[in-house]
Amino acid sequence: MFKVILNLCREAKLVNEALGVFRNMREFCCRPDTTSFNIIIRMFCEKGDMDVVLVLMKEMDLVGIYPDMITYIVSIKGFCQMGHLEDACGLVKLMHDQGCVMNVVAYYALLDGFCKIGDFDKGL
């Protein structure tokens, strides 16, 4: 039920309301999982609020939930769209350290980010 509500908030672009719903899940004895974190992280990436994304990713770690490929790709895209390529590269390193192997979508997001800022050498 919470995932449906979170997705509805995402469709309506109600980012703060979705975060409120997300934060209240525990009151109903529901523990957020990777999917619910991914919905919220995607919303803040789309909004361009990458500081909240970093907080949410740290929160995932604190509650023993590990980011998956979707978490990483959405976050890498978000950082690249904001022009924060060093942060995106940091996520790539974190992915590798946690045993998550880059795929073509993650590479494309990073390459697209470098090309958008005109840093073709790093893109190569």
Describe the structure.
The longest helix is centred in the N-terminal third of the chain and has 14 residues, at 34-47. The chain is an all-alpha fold. The chain has helices spanning 2-11, 15-24, 34-47, 50-62, 69-81, 85-97, 104-116, 120-123. It contains 8 helices and no strands. It is globular and about 50 Å long. It comes from Coptis chinensis. This is Pentatricopeptide repeat-containing protein.
Radius of gyration, whole Å: 15 Å
Number of domains: 1
Strand content: under 5%
CATH architecture, please? Answer: Alpha Horseshoe
Count every beta strand, where a strand is a DSSP E run of 2 or more residues. 0
CATH class: Mainly Alpha
User: How many angstroms separate the termini?
Assistant: 44 Å
CATH third-tier fold name: Serine Threonine Protein Phosphatase 5, Tetratricopeptide repeat
Helical content class: over 70%
> Can you tell me the overall shape?
globular
Classification by helices and strands: mainly alpha
Mean pLDDT: 92
Helix-strand sequence: HHHHHHHH
| Main sheet summary | none
Q: State the fourth-level CATH superfamily.
A: Tetratricopeptide repeat domain
List descriptors.
124 residues, mainly alpha
Fold blueprint:
Layout: H1 2-11, H2 15-24, H3 34-47, H4 50-62, H5 69-81, H6 85-97, H7 104-116, H8 120-123
Helix pairs in contact: 1-2, 1-3, 2-3, 3-4, 3-5, 5-6, 5-7
Quick summary:
With 124 residues, the protein is mostly helical.
